[in-house]
Write a structure and sequence with these properties.
- The complex is a heterodimer of chains A (443) and B (410).
- Chain A is α+β, with helices and mostly antiparallel strands and 443 residues long.
- Helices cover 49% and strands 14% of the residues of chain A.
- In chain A, strands 1, 2, 3, 4, 5, 6, 7, 8, 11 and 12 form a ten-stranded mixed β-sheet that branches.
- In chain A, helix 1 packs across helix 12, helix 2 runs antiparallel to helix 10 and helix 2 crosses helix 13.
- By secondary structure, chain B is α+β, with helices and mostly antiparallel strands.
- Chain B has two domains: 172 residues, no CATH class; 201 residues, no CATH class.
- Helices cover 50% and strands 16% of the residues of chain B.
- Chain B is built from 13 helices and 13 strands.
- The chains are: A alpha+beta (443), B alpha+beta (410).
- Chains A and B meet through helix 2, strand 2, strand 9 and helix 10 of A and helix 2, helix 5 and helix 9 of B.
């Protein structure tokens, strides 16, 4: 009795071998369904993940409404004007705070045969690096004093360091820019937050086409006020609520273009900060700088990502489609298995007549489903690896993220078992209800 | 062929019958929606841009850190580019259809105090050569006079840009503003600034288009009388004969690089290539959906063949008896075909409801338009056909059952 299930397993394998075509079709259908599901689930999981798992609940994105037009938004704008962002940053009410904006930065490498190129850059303040746990290979962030002193320094990414300095320790070297050189104080290790959360915004205007949120991190990091001088005229403006009088120096313009991120280590501090935002907005209204009703938000990192619907709708759609496909495969395999099992009705009749219980027939049939399901799972795993390879060949920003994942294996086994039960239960139950008398009577 | 005996037989095979109905219903629901999505994507991919795509190559100097990208330098560049043999016309244009970088303003029929009200429309400008280079036709009214044009620079772009007093508008936008009258000579407003419509031009599509290819807003556009330079991210668009475009592009890139040795070329491609780049997500999604549909129909067909073969085998004796009692082969064949037709019909009815349900859900959550009713009968025909095809083999096998089987196995 101990290895009765081993016996069923052998029977199942023999049955699979006896009907190779129909078994192969079943395995193929299950494999296709599982392969599609694992591929899309892996991509979905990678794209919907937490880019800062150790501390995302302590990272917040404050929003205020600084606009003065007659049109009042329901939600505050996705970015702040310069004055509000810098005021809030200077107040240092949070455990850590960093203002930031981004721009393409022209780099002019010296040496023969080199041409100028644009590197995506982030203009931010010291706290950016410790707040987001940015890993350093050489050197470190610039100092807090460098922020306000407009120090001519920069931190560069691993990829830029590889390109310009062959991966060596470039701390102390100069980074040649179009408008003067800056001294490199730090070189990052490989850093690939997905999505690049600190530049996520305006997701709800993107109609689901959000794959741009998964681009690689910037290559150059400049102190915010240094960057203001060096790269004036190249900053991305989210929106202007009045016609700006100057589009190069944006400091005093009626435009939203600076973001502020803060770290608040306890719930009480987060509450206090929210209150502080309300107070700030009320005060600015009293001063006449704000005219809209006070409307502040303080979402944490994951709330901000959800608000911006970061997972592209094509990825959603593919995931849904994969599940629907698996469901159809299961129904069809259930049909095939039913016919396969019932064709052997007389065999079960004989076994029943010889004393096998309904439970035993049921178990035997379920084992057969299990064997097909697991073979399908194996095929599905191979197809998923191939599917992820295909995703990596796609021209999308997140292509490089679609790597096979050890958790895929567990997921496949789980899905294969679930699928076996889903398509095997009914046929097995049906086979176990066969009346022995009727079957042995037939030749 | 009487249907009643078939129904009676089906009542004795509830599970198998139910499975076939379910298979067809699921396939119908998914396939009709997936095919609709594929067609939507393909319609986007095929959307005419309204410009002479095959005659156009593009060059763009890099965006950042430019000091000498003014309109004057653009004029020098364009003069050099026009000297290349095969270039019919050249223009420095702020943005192009499907270029993914949009300059847009809000226009309305009345002065607006609110900045972000009205209809958002992309604004194109690129000097007097723009219309000829892109192949845009003036349908009503006239093009701008040469003296109407002024230069834009990054310093004053916003002030000047929003204060354009004249415009050419596309046919689609003219229809939107004045559906029953000619737009020429009428006034629309950008904020509180009145803008005179001097002419209506043939439709061109936006730098970004919406998910729905039929959205008329895709063809809204305004052309303003400005000249632009590389400091405003202008593209150099060169018009050439299709056969010569590859050579023109190469020569143009080399010339531009020689004139600006420290600048990088951000882009050097044909418009056709830019278009392909714009739609590559749509194309890969269409292929993915299409392969899923094919795999799904294949799996469903296999499922039907399996169940039908099983039935035929189970009823061999019954078939033999019918044959012995005088039923012809064609009667047996018809029996199984009718049976499959009935099951498919039940599946299609169920599937219709599910297809509409899925579509309603997709509409609520994603930018998917309403499923046109025509997809339902087309999907029904497809699945009826698939069912008949799948059942043909097993039914023919059934028809070959000899009458003697009834006696042998009884």
């Amino acid at each position: 009795m101990r290895d009765i299930h081993g016996y069923y397993l052998r029977l199942a394998l023999r049955s699979v071998a006896r009907t190779p075509w129909i078994s192969a079709l079943m395995v193929l259908a299950i494999g296709l369904g599982i392969g599609a599901c694992i591929t899309t689930l892996t991509v979905y999981h990678l794209l919907s993940g937490d880019p800062l798992p150790q501390k995302s609940s302590r990272i917040f994105y404050p929003q205020v409404d600084p606009e003065t037009s007659t049109f009042v938004r329901r939600d505050p704008p996705d970015l702040m004007d310069y004055t509000s962002a810098v005021d809030l940053w200077k107040s240092e009410r949070a455990d850590r705070q960093a203002v930031m904006t981004n721009s393409p930065l022209k780099i002019l490498p010296t040496g023969a045969g080199t041409t100028a190129f644009d590197a995506p850059s982030l203009e931010t303040t010291h706290d950016f690096f410790p707040m987001f746990d940015v890993p350093f290979q050489y050197g470190g962030p610039w100092s807090v004093a460098d922020d306000t002193a407009r120090a001519q320094v920069a931190v560069i990414s691993k990829s830029l360091n590889d390109r310009l300095f062959g991966g060596g320790n470039s701390v102390g070297h100069m980074l040649p820019l179009a408008h003067g050189a800056v001294r490199i104080v730090g070189v990052l290790k490989h850093w690939r937050p997905a999505p690049m959360f600190f530049e996520v915004l305006a997701g709800r205007y993107s109609h689901g086409d959000t794959s741009g949120f998964y681009v690689k991190a910037p290559q150059v990091y400049l102190p915010f006020f240094t960057g203001m001088q060096l790269n004036a005229g190249h900053f991305q403006v989210f929106t202007c609520w009045k016609i700006p009088t100057d589009t190069v120096n944006l400091e005093n313009q009626p435009c939203d273009w600076v973001s502020l991120w803060v770290q608040l280590d306890t719930a009480a501090k987060a509450q206090a900060y929210h209150r502080y935002l309300v107070d700030y907005s009320d005060q600015q209204r009293a001063l006449g700088r704000f005219t809209h009703p006070t409307n502040v938000r303080l979402m944490d990192l994951m709330q901000w990502l959800a608000y911006n619907r970061v997972v592209p709708s094509d990825v959603h759609m593919q995931t849904i489609l994969a599940w629907a496909f698996l469901a159809i495969c299961l129904v069809n395999v259930a049909g095939l298995l039913l016919t396969k099992l019932l064709r052997r009705s007389s065999e079960y009749g004989v076994r029943r007549a010889l004393g096998a219980s309904r439970k035993a027939i049921f178990a035997q049939c379920l084992w057969e489903a299990l064997v097909i399901g697991l073979l399908g799972g194996l095929l599905g795993l191979l197809l998923a690896v191939a599917g992820l390879w295909m995703v990596r060949q796609q021209p999308v920003a997140y292509a490089d993220l679609a790597q096979p994942d050890p958790r895929m294996l567990a997921l496949t086994v789980g899905l294969a078992l679930l699928a076996s039960v889903a398509f095997g239960l009914w046929p097995a139950w049906r086979a176990s209800r066969i009346s022995p008398a009727q079957q042995i009577k037939a030749p | 062929m009487s249907v009643r005996p078939i129904l009676a037989a089906l009542r004795r095979h509830k599970i198998a019958a139910f499975l076939i109905v379910l298979e067809i219903a699921l396939a119908f629901a998914i396939v009709s929606n997936a095919v609709y999505l594929v067609i939507g994507r393909l319609q986007r991919v095929d959307l005419p841009s309204g410009i002479d795509e095959r005659n156009l190559v593009l060059l763009q100097l890099a965006t950042a850190g430019k000091q000498n990208g003014s309109v004057a330098s653009a004029q020098t560049d364009l003069a050099a580019l026009r000297a290349i043999p095969g270039v019919e016309s050249a223009s420095a244009i702020n943005t192009l259809p499907l270029s993914s970088s949009q300059w847009a303003l809000d226009y309305s029929l009345r002065p607006m105090r609110v900045f972000s009200d009205g209809v958002q429309v992309p604004v194109f400008f690129g000097g007097p050569e723009l219309l000829q280079t892109l192949g845009i036709r003036v349908i009503q009214g006239s093009a701008f006079q040469p003296s109407d044009y002024s230069d834009l620079s990054p310093k004053d772009v916003f002030k000047a840009f929003v204060n354009a007093r004249q415009a050419l508008i596309t046919q689609a936008f003219a229809q939107r503003l004045w559906p029953h009258a000619s737009a020429v000579g009428k006034v629309m407003y950008m904020g509180e600034t009145p803008v005179l419509v001097v002419g209506v031009v043939s439709n061109i599509i936006r730098p970004y288009i919406s998910a729905d290819a039929h959205d008329p807003a895709n063809c809204y556009g305004v052309i303003s009388p400005f000249r632009a330079g590389p400091d405003l991210n202008a593209w150099y668009a060169l018009r050439c004969r299709p056969a010569e475009c590859a050579r023109v592009l190469k020569a143009g890139a080399a010339k531009l690089q020689a004139m600006h040795p420290t600048e990088t070329l951000n882009a050097q491609e044909s418009f056709t290539h830019m278009r392909q780049r714009y739609f590559r997500d749509d194309r890969s999604m269409a292929w993915l959906l299409l392969s899923t549909v094919i795999a799904l129909l294949g799996v469903t067909a296999i499922g039907i063949v399996g169940l039908a073969s099983f039935w035929v085998q189970q009823r061999t004796r019954q078939i033999g008896v019918r044959r012995a009692l005088g039923a012809r082969r064609v009667d047996i064949l018809r029996y199984f075909q009718t049976e499959n037709f009935l099951l498919a019909t039940a599946g299609i009815v169920l599937g219709c409801a599910a297809a509409i349900g899925i579509n309603v859900w997709l509409m609520a959550h994603y930018a998917v338009p309403r499923l046109p009713v025509i997809y339902l009968p087309l999907g029904a025909l497809l699945l009826w056909g698939l069912g008949q095809l799948a059942v043909l083999g097993p039914a023919l096998r059934a028809a070959r059952v000899a009458p003697t089987v009834a006696m042998r196995t009884a």
